[in-house]
Amino acid sequence: MVLQENRGFAGGNNAGIQVSSAQYVALLNNDTKADPHWLSALVDAADHGPRVGMWASKILSYQSPKVIDNTGLLLYWDGLARGRGRLEVDRGQFDHQQDILFPSGCAALYRKVMLDEIGSFDDEFFAYADDVDLGLRGRLAGWDCVYVPDAVVYHKYSSSTSAYSPMKAFLVERNRIWVLLKYYPVELVLLSPYFTFKRLVLSLYGALTGRGASGKFTTQNSLARAGLILLKAWCAAAHALPRIIRWRRGFTTKKRLGRQAFYQLHRRFSLSTAEIALKD
After folding, report:
1. H-type helices in 79-222, by residue range?
2. In this predicted model, what pLDDT tens digit does every residue of 176-212 receive, in sequence order?
3. 68-70 and 52-61 as β-strands: parallel, antiparallel, unpaired?
C-alpha cells in the first residue's frame, strides 16, 4: 500500500489496520531495531484472556541498550503521558509480566477485535499521544493491557522528528488536551488548569536550570518561543472543541469503566509533577 500523502503515525497505521484481517495487529516504529523474538514473545503472551486487548514491549534505548526507553505508559492528571521506567538503568526491575495501563505505540500488539469495537487511532492527532488516546479508550471500554518483558525493542527516541522540536512540542501539548477532553471526568477537566500550572512552573524551573525536556528544548529555542507554541497548541485544541464534545457523547455507549474505576486506574498508573516536568 502506498499513501499519497503523509498521514502521520495515526493515519499511516490506520491505513494498514483497515485492510488487516488478522487476529492481532503489531506496530513497530521505523526508528527501532527489534529483537528476533520480539513478535513471537508478544503473540505467545496473547493467550491471557479474552479481555486483554493490548500488549506492551520492553523498549530500550538504541544508543544505550542498558537504559530503558519505556515499559508502557503512565499518565499525569492533565492528560500528559510519559514512559514507565524511562531513563532508568535496566537492572531487571521490569522483567516480570504484569498488567499495565497501556502500551507505547512504538512497539505494541493490539487485538483486532478490540480495534473493531472501539476504533483505531484518531487521524486528527497526526503524531504523539495517539497511542495514549487509543490505549485509554481501550481501558475505558473494559480492555486490559499486559506488559511482556521478553518482547524487546531498541528505539532511537523521537528520531522521526526531533526530541525537542517545536513541531513535537506543539503536537504533544495540543493532543494531551484532546485526550483530557475526550476521556477525563468533567471535574478533572475543570481542575486540569491547576495541574497544568504546576507542571509548567516546574518546567520553567527545568528550562532555567537545564533539567528535563524543557531544559533541552530551551537550548535550541527561546522561552518566548516556547510560550508561543503553548498558546498555539491551546488555541488549536480549543478550535476542535465541538468535534471533541460530539465524540465524547458518542463514546459514552462504549464505556464500561465508571468514574470511580477511572480514578482507581489513574491513581495506580499516575505520575508526579516532578517526574513529568523534570525528567527528559
Report:
1. 112-118, 130-140, 166-183, 186-209, 212-217
2. 999 999 999 999 999 999 999 999 999 999 999 999 8
3. antiparallel
SS3 of residue 267 by DSSP: helix
H helix or E strand, kind and range, residue 229: helix 223-239
- By CB atoms closer than 10 A (0-12, 13-18, 19+), residue 38 is buried
H or E segment to which residue 143 belongs = none
Distances (CA, A) of 3 to 19, 21, 70, 126: 13, 19, 30, 14
Strands 73-75 and 81-83, by their bridges, are antiparallel
How far does CA 110 lie from the centroid of its chain?
14
d(CA 38, CA 8) in angstroms, rounded, equals 24
How do 144-155 and 52-61 pair as beta strands? parallel
Distances (CA, A) of 230 to 50, 52, 172, 237: 41, 36, 10, 10
Distance of alpha carbon 39 from alpha carbon 46, whole angstroms: 11
Q: From the CB of residue 204, how many other CB atoms can be counted at a distance below 10 Å? A: 16
Cβ atoms within 10 Å of 235's Cβ, excluding its own: 10
**Virtual CA dihedral for 64, 205, 73, 67, nearest 10 degrees?**
10
What is d(CA 266, CA 280) in angstroms, rounded to the nearest whole number? Answer: 22
Q: Stretch 16-39: mean pLDDT, rounded?
A: 95
Q: How far is CA 27 from the centre of its chain?
A: 13
Tens digit of each residue's pLDDT (9 = 90 or more) over 107-139: 999 999 999 999 999 999 999 999 999 999 999
